[in-house]
Specification:
The protein is α/β, with parallel strands linked by helices. It is built from 9 helices and 9 strands. Strand 1, helix 2 and strand 2 form a beta-alpha-beta unit.
Amino acid sequence: MTRHLISIEDLERDDIERILERAEAFSEVTDRHIKKVPALRGRTVLNLFYEASTRTRSSFELAAKRLSADVVNFAASGSSVEKGESLKDTVLTLAAHSPDAVVVRTPWAGAATMVTNWTDAAVVNAGDGKHEHPTQALLDVFTLKQKLGGLDGRSIWIVGDVAHSRVARSNILAFQKMGAKVTVCGPPTLIPRGIEALGCEVQYDLTRLRDADVVYALRMQNERMHDAYVPSLREYAARYQINGRRLGPRQVLMHPGPVNRGVELSGEVVDSPQAVITMQVKAGVVVRMAVLYELLSGAPADDRVTSPEEPQLA
């Protein structure tokens, strides 16, 4: 694994499998009465969020705290950003506090890569515009490995607003690295031109949806749309909503959240046993623990304090 995690392209299959094994070990911690290990005691993790987030921000914060790291949470709202401070100057200001890792989420593609030039800390991309969201892909792979045992030979359909989804790009790359066949499906206006170059198949209707082992629905990302990509949400739902009529009884249903009930998913399938959406949220903490550990555990042994009560997970 490289010094930063900016893209799934930074990882080989062996790297992904090692992170998943580490996450599995950390999952034991979440079942303890005291949900902490001292693996990153004395380290500082800075969460730098320029976009609203519930799942990603809270899980990165929990992940760092369960590894005993100190956590600083930065949100653009209420900060000097509102006074016109640039991303670069904000990073340089906060880097003066010597964080060991910077977790960054921004609406700008490529911003996470730029941050690596302004700090000596390890940088984790928690979503950069329409580019990538690598830790979401890792937690999705972890969830599917728990549910199905593995991805080799599986068929996964990613349905919906692919054009504006950073999750879609990361998941296409990750699922394929783990041996799955990926199909993206949606209205032509929401399928990026040339996406086949990533190795996936493209469909524009749900006729063959039952071929899939896994159906991964994407949210309509209205906040990133500046044009009318579909006539109406009602018409989109009529043609592309995953509901009880379209979802097969043995198919696994996933969604990165937040769900727009009644648009990309009907309420009945969200609440069905086939949906693993809550499993995905739970996986987020242990997978992000594993990512932070992988990036920061290279400290000298004397700097990492362990105790008999809370053994270092190896």
